[in-house]
Amino acid sequence: MNLKYKIDSVSIHDYLEGELQSEIKHEYIDGQVYAMAGASTNHNRIVANILSALHAKLRKTPCEPFASDMKVQVAEDFYYPDVLVVCNHQGNDYGVTDAPILIVEVLSKATRKIDQTLKRQAYQSLESLQEYIVTEQDFVDVEICRRKNHWQSEHYFMGDELHLETIDCRIPVEMIYERVENEDVLNYLQQQASPMQNEN
């Protein structure tokens, strides 16, 4: 999530109708509409990598992953998670769900505070949600919080493998950060290459 600027208060109906026509996505929080700024290349790569793994796992199942065009409704607020998984989704005109079982957010300096406070609290209030995953893009750190563990944090790094228990999907952290350009990824790739170079 990257909030750019605020628009005057509007009704939920007007917000949803407006999103159908708008070229810019907006989130709706406490009656206010916030435009979302564009995402970085690293952000988009992480989202694409996670989405690819989820698509492969969930083929021919009642659950499906969505990218950031699907809105999540929490009470009277609406958010655009970076990635979410919904089971037995019944399509609607506004692209809204209130029953995700898994949500992923990719953090940035601009979004870290709201993603880790307001949105985290909102998502965790959803009875359907079982796992909340927060991924850094400027360095390697994947955090998983699970309902069954009272939302306690577990952190994963290069060389580790995530197990998304809700859908029984295993994803190596290295796969999540494939093609991502940051110092942690570069150092890891250099370390992986060193033994091969020594053998030659």
TrEMBL record:
Q: Which Pfam families match?
A: Uma2
Any idea which UniProt keywords this protein has?
Answer: Endonuclease, Hydrolase, Nuclease
A molecular function (GO) held by this record is: endonuclease activity
Ranges where the Putative restriction endonuclease domain occurs: 14-165
Question: What domain of life is recorded for the organism?
Answer: Bacteria
Coiled coil (residue ranges):
none
Name under which the protein is recorded: Uma2 family endonuclease
Q: Which organism is it from?
A: Methylotuvimicrobium buryatense (Methylomicrobium buryatense)
